[in-house]
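anyone seen this seq b4? input:
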Amino acid sequence: MSTTGKIAAIIDDHRIAIKVDPNVIKDEKVSIGDNAWIISKTTNIPDPDDESKTLGSFTDYKDHLEVTSVETNYVIATKYVNSGSALTISISGKKEFGTLDSGFIGKDDPVIKTGDRVIHVGDMVEFEH
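predicted toks r here
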């Protein structure tokens, strides 16, 4: 995952708006159906044999949503849940909204809590094509 964006707005308890570079959208590096992963934190893994080097990094995520709309300079991502089998979903073609746990707090305090993690405006998001 290398394409990133930043949460611009929390629309309701199912959807967020993510600011994305217009060139990324123009080049179709983000499209409907892509996964949007809200980043919790990235930890560098140090090399135990050489403190000046790292072995790589590990990224922990707060939540996972699906891109459902692409605009000129932002995308909308929606939280869905699986209800029933994949066969049921493929036959009906419908998905059920998932709630980002404790729900939409409100326009003046746009924060969604997921367990002990909190999703904020300004959080970074990675996209998976």
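The chain has two helices and ten strands. The CA atoms of residues 62 and 117 lie 6 Å apart. kinda curious what u guys think
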